[in-house]
Amino acid sequence: MVLDRTDASGLSSAVVGRADELMTLNAYAEAACDGRSGLVILSGPAGIGKTSLLRAFLDGGPGRSMTVLHGTCAETAAGAGYGGVRALFGPLGLCAEDAGDSPLLRGTARRALPALTAGPAAEPPPDAASVYAVLHGLYWLAANLMTDGPLALVLDDAHWCDERSLRWLDFLLRRADGLPLLVVLAHRAETRPVALAALEDITAQCRPALLHLTPLTPADVGQIVREVFPAPAHASFTARATAVTGGNPRLLTRLLHALRAEGVPPDERGAHRVADVGGQVIAGSLRGLLARQPGWVGDVAGAIAVLGETSPERIAALTAVPAQRVAEAVTVLRRADVVAPDRLDLAHDAVRAAVLGSLGDRAAADLRVRAALLLSDLGRPAEEVADQLLLVPDLGQPWMTAVLRDAAARAQARGAPDAAVRYLRRLLRSEPDSLPVRIQLARSLAETDPVETLALLRQALVPSAGLRTRAVVAVQYAMVCLTGPEAPSAVRILTAIVDELAAKEEPGTGDRELRTLVESALLIAGSARKETIAAARDRAAQLPVPPGDTPAQCQLLAMMTVLTAIEGHSVQRTVDLARRALRFPGVAPGGWSQLGSAFALNLADEPEEALAALDRLLRYGRENAADRTHVLALSHRALVLHGLGALPDALSAARSAVDAIDQGKWRGYQVVPQIALATVLTDRGEPERAERLLGDLEGRNLDGFAIDYPWYLMARARARRALGDSATALGLLRDCGRSLDDAGITNAAFVPWWAEAACLLAELNRHDEARECAAHGTALARRWGTPRALGLAAVARGVSTIGRAGLGPLTEAAETLADSPARGEQARAEYLLGRALLAAGEQLGARVRLRTAAGLAQRCGALPLGRAARRALLTAGGRMREITGSPVDLLTGRERKIAALAAAGVSNRTVAESLFITVRTVEMHLTGVYRKLGVSQRTDLAAILHAAGIRTEHPAEAAEPRVARATPGRTEQDGVHGERAR
Predict the structure, then answer these.
(1) Whole-angstrom Cα distance, residue 890 to residue 186?
(2) Which residue has better confidence, 856 or 660?
(3) Which pLDDT score, from 0 to 100, does residue 967 have?
(4) pLDDT at residue 720 is higher than 50
(5) What percent of the chain has pLDDT over 70?
(6) What is the pLDDT of residue 752?
(7) Which run of H or of E encompasses 771?
(8) Considering only CA atoms, which of 880, 866, 813, 854 is closest in space to residue 683?
(9) What residues form DSSP beta bridges with 67?
(10) What is the SS3 assignment for 954?
(11) What CA–CA distances, in Å, run from 552 to 6, 146, 380, 589, 617?
(12) Which residue, among 555, 569, 557, 559, has the nearest Cα to 533 in the 3D structure?
């Protein structure tokens, strides 16, 4: 521990009993100064010496050579959005009203302002709330600080830190490889953190050094005793002091202060007094101190306990104590170690609890109410006022609930829904019958907690609510429970509300838009399950096609598009409807216009437009903290990229989606992320992992879902086939066909189980059954008419035809798929054609096809197919380098070029200029390269590229001195589809 320099006790500043921990902190600081970022998490009970250790670390050693931002989280702001961030950056003046003028907030860092300045002037309007933008801005603020040297972010009392601040630290650390950064978090072990999940995520993901401070040993205690008492201490005195305080440095220090003040010597006689004095130290020292002081000293202590770190002016205003006496009281309290030595706040939360306890519950509550009024009169943000009211047991005055409503709205607008939820929960306890509060809380939870959201919405669906209110609630209910067992009930509720709206006489424009919204939600919910999809299809057929001038109309158009697409009759009508649905700018909550249109466009062989729609949805999800929407967009993006044969990018998107649901509460309500990841893993040669992932979905009752269940069956069948279990795979494929029939889905391009089954049956020499599958698929494909569908049908006919007669359909398949966007399917068609040519004795033709197949498969990242094609090529007398599965094989052409230049030492700006692209694009590609190659910095690139035979030389004039600059982390979108292998 660090002992205060020259105080009344005579304690020195030596570090006692913490040499190992201090050495670890110094080692991590030295590593950060060398460009190796790190995280240290310091924990221990109250009074164990965490803050003192941090002070010793920052006052000496390598900590002195770093820019240090040292903040302390306060209980009064526990859970408030970005409170921890403001504690860190406040000393730089970045939390003031004029913070926007700071040069540190230049460029992208300016996006951090909503987190730094909680005032109304800094808040964006609700439709511009951008959690991701704020996180990115804070990242660049830290990066700007690191351009001047190593940076240490030290956050004390992190158990009071809000979730958003911890999520930003996680965001920063995940992108900090190669940066001169050290993050130190200190938290009290016995206190449950406000944002436990976020703190656990950082601990699990960022591999920190975990330093748990243990009690001082008797030898350590003896050393401190010798510092306090000039006379030698008896062993019994030291032993008793150790036992009474449990080796807790703070208790020990206070005990020794008290003993010396009473004139107790450190001998055997004094040892008998240790227990008596020690029992009174914590409770009695404060009480005795205040009893010996004028009443206004206690008033000042109470004000500081309630306000947290504050100013003398606010203390004076709250207590009505003159400013001069406030200063005198602070001096008295600081000398008694009640007030911290370096800030106007109580020294520790244990002291705060003792002060508040001395007031009594009623007096403490009254003081918090007065503090809230004072902060409101001072024009402080509603969130700061509300933080006081959260700790008041009775919100009996109307202005209190109004403040909480305002704080919730502002928190939501600032991209801090967790803080909004905190205020709304308290408001709901005060107004349990308030439908608006219940609905607002459900809206704040909708993207993160489906179970509680549904419970709240069920309670809001009461007959006493007006029709418009019930309609809005029903739509929200349906959107949350789509993938849960409650979906059929949503259909019934929406149907009843549509009928009520239809019966309404002389509806206005708002009523018509609301009915359109409800109709679209009914189609979405009805399309989710087999038992309701037929009725949804019939309902859509009876509705007039809307022009697409409003968000509700676009959502209705998108669902009409989906239902049209899965029928598999008209590609042109599907594309026209989808494009009209995407015509309206912006994204409505839920993003179903983009999701539905992207789904249909992908089936229609228009993947570029599908990806563009999903990219819009990804941006919306990031900017509005819409976790569920973001996950759905990533999952569908992964499936589109898989269909294109862009397996590395598909893998990255799918992994990001699965990681996101693992961190939230949507895991039991999401299946598409796992299906997408399993699908990609199988083609990447990891069917065992795919099988395990899909196994986690068992017991979800998926067989009732119209679209998700066929996806699941197809993914599982392909994994089983890759594992050599042909019988199970065939059974799953037939189940897939039956499920599609039950749902009335007849689009050849959606889950073409028949093509997979025909190939499998042909391998088993069951050609008659294979031809039945081929005939079924060919009829569907000719009706739909896209190159992908027609090519797959030709594959099925080719493999099911024995002998040379199969060469014609397989040739047709290869040529047709070459005109489609499906590079992976083209590679498989070329492989099957090459094998058939080889079996027919045409070795030359076989070599051409097999070489094409191997090259396509390798560029797609489909390693098992590429290796199979190479083996067949060698059998045909050809030659080809071993397909090793090197991660370099996963790089696109542009990524290889950028990686080679970067490995040679060329700066990002020079790379951008030489390739005629932006620096941001270079940074994004490099982040993708690092992820695909499994490295953390460009210095690791050269060895991997050299091993793969890629040269890294460059013209000497291309090199320039490298500027120390932070590189932003890659977004969850992961990958640039424009660089797909073709």
Answers:
(1) 41
(2) 856
(3) 33
(4) yes
(5) 90
(6) 98
(7) helix 767-784
(8) 866
(9) 151
(10) coil
(11) 71, 47, 38, 10, 16
(12) 559
Closest C-alpha to 309, from 331, 287, 353, 339:
339
3-state secondary structure of 588: coil
How far is residue 707's CA from residue 701's CA, in Å, rounded to a whole number?
Answer: 13
Domain 19-212 = CATH 3.40.50.300: yes
8 A C-beta contact, residue 357 and residue 30: no
Least confident interval from 264-273, 346-355, 764-773, 871-880: 346-355
Provide the phi-psi class of 247: left if phi over 0, else alpha when psi is between -120 and 50, else beta.
left
Which tokens is 967 given? 């590189």
Mean pLDDT in residue range 126-138: 68
User: What are the residue boundaries of the structural domains of the chain, listed by start?
Assistant: 19-212, 218-270, 887-979
Continuous H helices in 378-508: 382-389, 398-413, 417-430, 435-445, 450-460, 467-480, 487-502
pLDDT of residue 954: 54
Gap between the Cα atoms of 259 and 236, Å rounded: 15
How far apart, in whole angstroms, are the C-alpha atoms of residue 562 and residue 575?
10
Is the pLDDT score of 494 beyond 50?
A: yes
The tokens for 235 are 């062993």
Whole-number percent of the chain with pLDDT over 90: 46
pLDDT score of 182: 95
Q: Residue 773 to residues 717, 768, 788, 830: CA-CA distances in angstroms?
A: 16, 9, 17, 21
Kindly report whether the global pTM for this prediction surpasses the value 0.90.
no
Single-letter amino acid, residue 240: R
Q: For 97-133, give the secondary structure using H, E and C.
A: CCHHHCHHHCHHHHHHHHHHCCCHHHCCCHHHCCHHH
Out of 1.10.10.10, 1.10.260.40, 3.40.50.300, 1.10.760.10, which CATH number does the structure's domain 887-979 have? 1.10.10.10
* Residue in the block written with tokens 């240090």: 68
| Cβ-contact 51, 18 below 8 angstroms | no
pLDDT band at 780 (very low <50, low <70, confident <90, very high): very high
188, β-bridge pairs: 44
Q: Cβ(607)–Cβ(821) under 8 Å?
A: yes
Average of per-residue pLDDT values in the chain: 85
Are the C-beta atoms of 857 and 849 separated by less than 8 Å? no
